[in-house]
Amino acid sequence: MILVLPVALTAQDVNRAMLRTQGGTWLNGKAAPESTVIFSNDLVQTDASHVATIEAEGSTVTVQPETIVQFRGDELVLDHGRLQIGTSRKIKVRVNCLTVIPIVYEWTQYDVTDVNGKVTVVAHKNDVNIHAHSTLHQSKQSGPAGEATVREGESATRDEHCPGAARLRAPIDADGPWLDNWWVIGLGIAGVGVPLCKAFCFHGDDPVSPSVP
Question: How far is 85 from 94, CA to CA, in rounded Å?
């Protein structure tokens, strides 16, 4: 039992990690505490002046300011921003149809940045591969559409283009950053104003109810 139990615990720990923050971070649309456990599919967002750290078994990830990322155990799904990864367990990063994967099970350090439709990968220690798939959910039979290796000390940039790919979105919290967006507010006003205007603006002197003479 002494030998088997640690192995079982390690297997369970793959889909959970510790999130550490110093404010300015949201977890699934809610303000994140300074230290909390996160699980697979949890969504993390940082504001413009704060960073957060995800500490998983054999891996440490620094979530840079203005970043949205989803934790999925051995994979991070980057919606926008920049991640700095250090891993000995080949934790990978996916940006739409691109997946960045360390080549060896040794300590590997690399950055992934997704800004303005461009994905930049920098390999600081050991090499990483960039797999390019034709769609976001590609079948196993079709295989990758392309692959490139970023050598230690080098960088590579790719266009972010995935037909039909859906962007990550967290649940909206009234106190969170997703409502702090003027175009969202504008759409909401338009959605309410247009039906009301149709009801009242175009009838002239006609009564609203046909029963009124």
Answer: 13
